[in-house]
Amino acid sequence: MQKKLASAYLLVALALFVLVGVIVWIIYGRGAAYSRIVLNQQTVNSSVIPFRRGTITDRNQTVLAASEQVYNLILDPSVILQGNADDQAATVAALMNTFGYTQEEMTEVLTQNANSAYVRYARELSEEQKTAFETYRTEYNSGKDNVGKVSNTGVWFESEYKRVYPYDSLACTILGFSGTDSSQGNWGIEQYYNSYLVGTNGRSYGYLNRDGVIERTTRSAEDGATIVTTIDYTVQRIVENAIQEFIADKTVDNVGVVVMDPKTAEILAMATDSMFDLNNPQDLSARYSEEEISAMNDSEKSDALNAMWRNFAISDTFEPGSTAKVFTEAAALEENLAEADTTFDCDGGEQVVDRYIRCSHHHGELTFEEALGKSCNDAMMQMAKLMGKSVFAKYQNLFGFGRLTGIDLPGEASGILYTEDKMSSVDLATNAFGQNFTCTMVQMAAAYCSVLNGGSYYKPHVVKEILSSGGDVIEEVGSTVVRETVSKSAVEVLKNGLAMVVSDGTAKNAVIQGYTVGGKTGTAEKYPRGSENYVLSFVGFTPVEDPELLVYVVVDNPHSKEVPKYTVKDTAVPLEQKIMRSLLEYLNITPAQAFDADAEAPREPETDADGNIIDDVVTPAVREEMDEEVPEGGFVTPADDGPPAEVPTDAEGNTIPAEEREDAAEGEGEEGEAEGEGEAAEGEAAEGEDAENGEDAENGEAAEGDDAENDKDAEDDAENAEGEDEE
């Protein structure tokens, strides 16, 4: 028996010895690890430290978009209601006195969320409001005669950031806007550079240590990067003010202005008539009445907002008209098909397959430079015929038409362009003077920059560099040469022709005293033909010798009660000149010659009785009187505006044969000549039911096949291409 007891005691002693050993090992060998586990289970609270979304500045560091620290008021009803009645009353009174809440509001939120530990009751409070409450709480709780205590843990503040745009609507379509959580940008730079602008949230942890004291560990947030744009605040403001003044007495579908540095394709300003408040981007009141907004369903409101936010300069396509003629001439020079002293005979038009396509004027013999200066369609068609479809299509592509420029903004469109295999002879002829294909403003501006800077096509861009939150350069966006388009020798010839447009052509009212100015006008009739709706444009630059500034203006469908019909000289040219004049002074671009106050004022462009510039385009309303039939331009796409061309037909809808058109030309030519217009003034068969209905301007515009049998198939091809572009 004693032996059994001794064995039991020995086993117990051994077990105790082992247990003590294990305890010692735990304390000294694994103590730290177990302490961390325990302390982690004793976490008091954990809160997110939000990142600050990156700042956006102009090229001179003027802040265009920033994030301002604000605070959310957080209530913990479960803690507040644990206090006695006096403490509850004191806490509610503090909230009422500081923020103006009512007793009913406070009672409702506490009782309805009695078991909740987190109620975000107010957002975007200022630092002053937060400080006011905290000061009130401290002073009240330290007062000896006050009844109850304001809860310290039941009311607290959560930090976040609010996106702020100091200049409201300035550069709204370039900047875009950010949502309330700062994690996603919408439209513009905010969207395109979102990955740089967002940062990483930090976190703060609180827990009880061994002594029961709250300790806190913090992981700091990483703020977003700063985006330095190419935009100049003052240039942008000048452009926007000019647009708003321009549209004050007229209605327009769109107005767009792009200002660029031709040497680098940096965009100094880009503006449209569509303005909205970046601090309140959901507000439609500037465009619609309260009744109209109230009547909208969700889908209609979404469409209205997207239309307001849309950037016309990069997202909308239109037929450019005569501004594209410079690229036809560039191709002719580069392919050695013409030289500066080459002459062309403009006899009023060209016979192309089964139709006669007219020039807007009977110019006679023109030099190569005069062909551009006088905006001669006939000369352009002759050049295009010399080079053929393959070469012409190559240069359209080389100058960036039918393809994305790669501008660093979302929503860019590419336009509609015929490929070589789908381009008919009529398409070639009409494309030569800017008709029957579409482009965007930024495509046209970038292509012009390549001509003006000596042949280097730079990718257009709105950002110069990206900086870390500490100010270090992360990435230099800079200017990127994509390809070479034209030789320097050709550039000099082209610039001379563009200078002639202003000195003695279709943009005489673009002259600015003391400066050499060049440019090109464009007038495109919108689809459907005969609608009297036009897109009017002018691209101007200065100085001609070494261009430093390019201003491109597009005015889409201007109308007013006072002016029945606007021309390019009434709209795009004076708007460009007004902007250019202001920018020359601001940018301190030195005049080429001293200003002479007594110098003869620049001559107005030659016009007809209705004020239409004769050398540029003949509008439908005066076409019958002047016996001119082909406008400079055609239609505007967005892509759902219909097919790009009409096929000339008789009253039964049959295609008019070429020989009949020629017979009509011979018969009518004599009558026209007797009236002093010359045979070129007549000679086109009517495209509609008869030649007197005023719609024969559509003749020769855009047959989609080389003969009448191919017209329908080509029209279908154009419609398909249109649909693809829209997608």
Overall description:
It is built from 23 helices and 23 strands. The protein has 727 residues and is an alpha+beta fold. Among the domains are: 46-229, Penicillin-binding protein 2a (Domain 2), CATH 3.90.1310; 647-687, no CATH class.
Could you outline the blueprint of secondary structure elements for this entry?
Layout (H helix, E strand, L loop, with lengths): L1 H28 L1 H11 L1 E7 L6 E2 L5 E13 L1 H4 L4 H15 L3 H10 L6 E7 L1 H16 L12 E10 L7 H4 L1 E2 L6 E2 L1 H5 L1 H4 L4 E7 L5 E6 L6 E4 L3 H14 L7 E8 L4 E7 L17 H6 L2 H12 L2 H4 L9 H10 L8 E4 L2 E4 L2 E4 L5 E4 H6 L3 H22 L26 H8 L8 H12 L3 E3 L4 E5 L5 E4 L4 E4 L3 H17 L13 E8 L8 E9 L6 E8 L15 H15 L33 H7 L31 H17 L36 H16 L1
Parallel strand pairs: 2-10
Antiparallel strand pairs: 1-8, 2-3, 3-4, 3-5, 6-7, 8-9, 10-18, 11-12, 11-23, 13-16, 14-15, 17-20, 18-19, 21-22, 22-23
Helix pairs in contact: 4-6, 10-20, 14-16, 14-19, 16-17
The fold-level CATH name of the domain at 46-229 is Penicillin-binding protein 2a (Domain 2)
Mean of residue pLDDT values:
81
Shape category: elongated
Count the strands? 23
Structural class: alpha+beta
**What ranges have pLDDT less than 50 throughout 5 or more consecutive residues?**
594-605, 612-727
Identify the CATH class of the domain at 46-229: Alpha Beta
Count of helical segments? 23
Oligomeric state = single chain
**Could you give the distance between the termini?**
98 Å
CATH superfamily of the domain at 46-229: Penicillin-binding protein 2a (Domain 2)
Radius of gyration from CA coordinates:
36 Å
Indicate the CATH architecture of the domain at 46-229. Answer: Alpha-Beta Complex
Q: What proportion strand?
A: 15-25%
Helix content percent band: 25-40%
Q: What profile does the largest beta sheet have?
A: 7 strands, mixed
